[in-house]
């Protein structure tokens, strides 16, 4: 089908709910909308990278199903031998050393603008030490980038967040020599995965959603934002204790993401994805549940984009 409309895409964060973003790509294709140029944050960075490297929605779907859980398992195997499961569970429930609590405080929360480190280098070193208990995504990400031959394409932008300067970091093809590092940083959810020490020796990078889950302020008006909303109900499938803890924190609004809203002033088309029974960290959901997210994402995209085309806003 020949695309009638070309737009940039902004793929928001949301963990396993990224399957909805794959469905969005299928729905956009159905209605004649071509995504050309993509900004991704967290799981959205993976969708954006695969898309900008020429993979279609079906191929991205296969990559997610074949690699997503495998990558998480591989990351878990990189946990130090002295780390106990009880430590990880306590961390998942919200217990952290003081400096980690300070660093993980979300931008946009009351008082967050006052979070500064008197000695940034010492803070960085201490944070690296205290967060070593978390799974390291970098080895699995390097494997995926190498095996799929992924590159930092001209239309690709990846958002991460520096815990030390408290500022967003945007990776583009002009400043990205290590695509795997950029992807790992964008996906390194604080409290779930290990932060990424930037080679410059100054920045300590985490999930770009710590700046904003749907960062429409980085794009000109006219893009399409795929927003993955939080869980609001109990899960329909059995989850691991850590996954269940993450699910309940999301349902109760205890997650640190205070910036998720999409400002109408940005002038973008918003595709809201509602996943009441699926939380971002529920990577153990079944293949059927993953497929259901893709199908829902496709139908939701068709509904919203057709309406936008009909009323002339797209």
Overview of the structural elements:
Strands 1, 2, 3, 4, 5, 6, 7 and 8 form an eight-stranded mixed sheet that branches. The chain has 314 residues and is α/β, with parallel strands linked by helices. The chain is 40% helix and 14% strand. Helix 1 crosses helix 10 and helix 7 crosses helix 8. The protein is globular and about 55 Å long. About 7% of the residues have low confidence.
Question: Secondary structure elements and their pairing?
Answer:
Blueprint: E1 5-11, H1 18-31, E2 33-41, H2 43-52, H3 57-77, H4 85-93, H5 98-104, H6 120-130, H7 138-148, E3 156-162, E4 167-172, H8 179-187, E5 196-197, E6 204-207, E7 224-228, H9 241-251, E8 269-273, H10 287-310
Parallel strand pairs: 1-2, 1-7, 2-3, 7-8
Antiparallel strand pairs: 3-4, 3-6, 5-6
What would a concise description of this structure say?
The chain has 314 residues and is of the alpha/beta class.
Q: What is the gyration radius calculated from CA atoms?
A: 18 Å
Structural class comes to alpha/beta
Helix content: 40-55%
Count of beta strands:
8
Distance between the termini: 18 Å
Mean pLDDT: 86
Shape: globular
Portion in beta strands? 5-15%
SSE pattern, N- to C-terminal: EHEHHHHHHEEHEEEHEH
Q: How would you characterize the largest beta sheet?
A: 8 strands, mixed
Taking pLDDT < 50 over at least 5 consecutive residues as the criterion, the unreliable ranges are 81-95, 106-111
Question: How many separate helices?
Answer: 10
